[in-house]
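Quick one: structure tokens for this chain, please?
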Amino acid sequence: MSAGCKDGCGHVGSAPMDASAQRVLWFVLIANAAMFGIETIGGHAVGSVSLQADALDFGADAATYAITLWAMRRSAAMRTRAALIKSAAMLALGLVIMASVAVKFVSAAPPEPAPMGLIGALALAVNLGAVLMLLRFRTGDANLRSAWLCSRNDAVGNVLVIVAAAATAATQSHWPDFAVGLIMSLLFVSGSWAVYRQARRESAFALQGMSA
């Protein structure tokens, strides 16, 4: 945990930092909510399981940012609980994506690669912007770190969607799309574990401070 977090976990730094973090989180929340709608419609239209998984990703991130905004001025204990809830949500999303890949595996046809790649490129631009805006908060408490992790995972997922679109165009196979969906689910599971571990460390640190 960074020194800055130790000095001000209960308030996410000074009041100006709170205001700055809130502005960034509101911006990325709105952007993620918009991309959730775009990718949900686009994923179903082109028949891409990886785009649909990415849409769920955007929706979960919008919820994550909303929880982070709610938790920013709460007590350390409430902030830890919020981070644990987000960890569980990330794990659940990873399992949902795995299930979606399994269900669509039986009868799915290859998705349409051109619109799939274009939507993936738009999503990547949105997430790269979010990653850059959240970069200075990545060593904050578990809630701000989880927000940065979500955007980072999204950017990686968007690159994979674009690669899958190119591979689908080259092979006319649904396998690249399925492979990316599975990889994205594993990213969520690993991200969930990272947020959980940091939340537990912060909880232990808070308990030590209370007993000191």
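The chain is about 85% helix and 0% strand.
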